[in-house]
Specification:
Chain lengths: 280, 422
């Protein structure tokens, strides 16, 4: 690459700063709001006049504790289980798609694509009725199953692309060297596919973690309600008070694990995404 | 160590296309067999059938007399070196070589694994690289790691699938001799697939030439070169390849586009009654007539031709003569070229001349041809009319004897060095 001139550097810096501002301003605003006292909310100032942790206290140890902590538990549990099932199923499915020639292979990929672009809102109502009839309404499985419909297709597509770029000869070499099909898969293919599986898992986790429509429609109590839905049920200290501060604090808390995940694994995510995309 | 027997092996794909058609080969214990042929001739498929990565449609595959058709690759105890090495990128060189040992759980103690891998690494000069990942190695080193994985586990036979085709020319020559020496030293049965005839000729005890899934001839390199069974083998083996000239018989002379060639009675007999025969002449059967001794001159025939140009290579030179065949023969030659994976065969004759020859292009030159060695082919069937089967068999017999001697020598030397070490 040629060395860029000072002018180019400055231009790029300005553009980066603008994009960063645009992307991060809402986050900063929520962060600032989460530290405001209820009386401070309508002053119109960006920063709180007095920093206070009253909102965090409210959701972690105060009135809203029951609502928030149970929903946090639900979110983590449901998202993790949905991710785990999706990744395991998608790994096996994608491996078959990449390696075997069977009738209906194209169909599976097309169906997966169709499912992933299907508007969620259009199946929520039928699902609501169905779930109530068969007793899945307001339960963990009642959310995990629809989440699989969101996470599976993208997992299958990313992983299939990933498996395709692993040379088949590695597996054959392992088989000749004395491995069973399963050993060849586990010892030669899985370690190589690990970055891809990892990326897929993180993407699937985000999708399940961020969902709102299913979360609010298919739950009614703390038994299964996830965080994004629970936020809508926050109330202020009195009925005349907006719960904005508490919602902001909760939003910050649920963002933290995601930010940590991305920061910790950014290298794997980037390499996973680009490998699948470029060579797949 | 084991013998491998292929009995009428057939591989048919879903569309009925036979990639390997009725191939029968007996590979003796300790033999180095080469499978050679143009691309698409089924040589790799055949190798993969032996190792078990490809199903066998019909026929029997025996290892040491036991039928293994239905056995999984892991139960055949064969080792294979792949074209692109198939090293595990996430494992170090040590772990790559140890991979087969680790798979055989419980059979090797950690100390034994350590010892076997170090030993293999020493043989292959990889000791310094054991802790590196394959990604950081050069092509030749990767190739050696792949071989290490094969030799570490005392397999019954080694199978090579074009192992040198990813290396540059210089390294290829070096690795070729390393493979050859290693095979002799270990005395292990080896099957080696290649499309490079230099590799085929230099490495093999016997070479099997395949065309479109069918075995054409299996013999020692020398027999293939001197007594080819048909047009295809004659044209495929040798570089520059054999010249084919259409000829008609008149008396005891063959009339060819470059002139009349006087031939022996024997050759006249086989050519009699045929409208056209193809004369197969290797480039080195020609010589500048002025460079040939009088005593030798009697054994051949002299003619005059005009060379288009010559190429001087230092130790010898190539001359080119153009000729114009009739369309029928031309089609035949084009077909042959296609089968051999070459581009259209240009209607020209390549002659090898002594490096000191003063013959230059564009002027008529007097050339001498050793007529004893030429072969006549039937243009219809491609069959070699002048093949001396007995002479050919003798050549292969000779090669077999030489091989047995070499292996015995190598083992003796091995035993001697071991004794010295202990």
């Amino acid at each position: 690459m040629k060395n860029s001139s000072t002018k180019e550097k400055v231009t790029w810096a300005v553009i980066s700063v603008l994009v960063l501002l645009y992307a991060l301003f809402p986050v900063a605003s929520i962060l600032a709001t989460s530290f405001k006292q209820p009386s401070d909310l309508t002053t119109g100032k960006f920063l709180p006049t007095e920093w206070s942790t009253v909102n965090y206290e409210q959701i972690l140890v105060g009135d809203a504790q029951g609502l928030f902590l149970s929903s946090l538990r639900n979110s983590i549990g449901i998202a993790l289980i949905a991710t785990f099932i999706a990744v395991v199923l998608a790994t096996l499915c994608a491996y078959a798609i990449a390696r075997l020639d069977f009738p209906g292979k194209k169909m599976i990929l097309t169906t997966a694509l169709a499912v992933s672009i299907f508007p969620v809102i259009s199946i929520v109502t039928p699902l609501f009725n169905l779930w109530r009839t068969i007793g899945l309404y307001d339960t963990w499985p009642g959310l995990i199953i629809p989440y699989l419909s969101l996470t599976l297709p993208i997992s299958i597509w990313t992983l299939a692309a990933f498996f395709r770029q692993i040379p088949w000869e590695l597996e054959q070499a392992a088989q000749v060297d004395g491995a069973t099909t399963w050993q060849a898969f586990r010892k030669a293919i899985v370690p190589l596919a690990a970055p891809g599986v990892f990326t897929t898992a993180i993407i699937a986790f985000f999708i399940a973690w961020n969902d709102f429509v299913y979360g609010i429609s298919l739950t009614s109590t703390e038994a299964a309600r996830p965080v994004p839905a629970a936020l809508a049920f926050f109330t202020g200290a009195s009925q005349f008070e907006e719960p904005t501060g508490a919602i902001s604090a909760a939003a910050i808390i649920v963002t933290i694990p995601i930010v940590l995940l991305v920061l910790l694994f950014q290298r794997q995510i980037v390499s996973g995404l680009t490998q699948g995309a470029v060579k797949g | 160590m084991a013998s491998i027997t292929l009995n009428n092996l057939v591989k048919q794909y879903g569309d009925g296309f036979p990639a390997v058609n009725d191939v029968s080969i007996d590979i003796a214990d300790g033999e180095f067999l080469i499978l050679v042929g143009p691309s698409g001739c089924g040589k790799s498929t055949l190798l993969r059938m032996i190792v078990g990565l490809e199903d066998i449609t019909s026929g029997d595959l025996l290892i040491d007399g036991k039928r293994v058709n239905e056995k999984a690759p892991r139960d055949r105890n064969l080792a294979m070196v792949f074209q692109n090495y198939a090293l595990y990128p996430h494992l170090t060189v040590f772990e790559n070589i140890a991979f087969p040992l680790r798979l055989a759980k419980g059979r090797h103690s950690e100390a034994e694994v350590q010892r076997l891998v170090t030993e293999a690494a020493k043989t292959l000069e990889l000791t310094d690289h054991l802790q590196r990942k394959p990604g950081n190695l050069s092509g030749g080193q990767r190739q050696r790691v792949a071989m290490g994985r094969a030799i570490v586990r005392q397999a019954d036979a080694f199978l090579f699938d074009e192992p040198l085709s990813n290396l540059d020319a210089k390294l290829r020559g070096q690795m070729r001799s390393e493979i050859s020496q290693m095979q002799r030293r270990l005395g292990v049965t080896s099957v080696y697939v290649t499309h490079d005839q230099t590799e085929a000729m230099t490495l093999g005890d016997r070479v099997a030439v395949l065309k479109k899934g069918e075995l054409q001839q299996i013999a020692s390199p020398r027999e293939l070169y001197e007594q080819p069974v048909n047009l295809f083998v004659a044209g495929f083996i040798g570089s520059p390849s054999m010249n084919f000239l259409p000829a008609t018989l008149e008396g005891n002379k063959l009339k060819t586009p470059v002139g009349d060639i006087e031939v022996s009675e024997e050759k006249v007999r086989v050519a009699e009654g045929k409208r056209v025969v193809l004369v197969g002449i290797r480039p080195e059967y020609f010589e500048d007539a002025s460079m040939v001794d009088d005593s030798k001159r009697q054994q051949g025939s002299t003619f005059t031709a005009e060379l288009t140009h010559t190429e001087w290579l230092g130790n010898e030179q190539y001359g080119y003569i153009k000729f114009d065949p009739d369309p029928e023969v031309r089609d035949l030659l084009d077909n042959l070229a296609r089968e051999m994976d070459a581009d259209e065969l240009r209607p020209q004759i390549v002659v090898t001349l002594d490096a000191a020859s003063r013959i230059r292009g564009g002027r008529p030159a007097e050339l001498w041809l050793d007529t004893r060695k030429i072969h006549l082919f039937d243009p219809g069937t491609g069959e070699n009319l002048t093949r001396d089967a007995a002479a050919g068999a003798a050549l292969t017999e000779e090669a077999n004897a030489a091989r047995a001697e070499e292996i015995a020598d190598a083992r003796e030397r091995d035993a001697a060095t071991k004794q010295q070490a202990s």
